Amino acid sequence: MAKSLACAVALMALLSAPALAHDTPGGGEGAKVTLVYDHELPNVPGKSMRGVLVEYAPGGFSEGHTHPVSAFIYATVLEGAIRSQVNDGPATVYKAGESFSELPGDRHGVSENASKTQPAKLLAVFIVDTAQQELTFPLKK
Fold this sequence. Notes:
Blueprint: H1 2-15, H2 17-20, E1 22-23, E2 31-40, E3 47-56, E4 61-62, E5 65-66, E6 72-79, E7 81-86, E8 92-95, E9 99-102, E10 107-113, E11 120-129, E12 137-138
Antiparallel strand pairs: 1-2, 2-3, 3-11, 4-10, 5-10, 5-12, 6-9, 6-11, 7-8, 7-10
């Protein structure tokens, strides 16, 4: 059931991309971050679902970051392989079709293409406060 929902959300977000796509902050070297879906949840007042497509060139990465404290994130790798580390957990490589989630307040220290020769893409689906516009904040050094 969860996989079916994730696939449906991913497909809906990608199909709506031409009408909604615009670049958003949060990229790094060799990373393109695009908002592809934004919809208020009618049965959860004050919350929205936002889909963000992250495209990594070979060797591309995003700087270490956090997300809004209201955000729950479910990410699915669409193409290639993504190396990800959340909080102090191990860095893990997720391949196309695999998913991971981030809880409110998590710190995303590593998010990068696991390959130096092939591109990679992931779809991150946020459930977040509707009033929250920024979705990514750089880690303080």
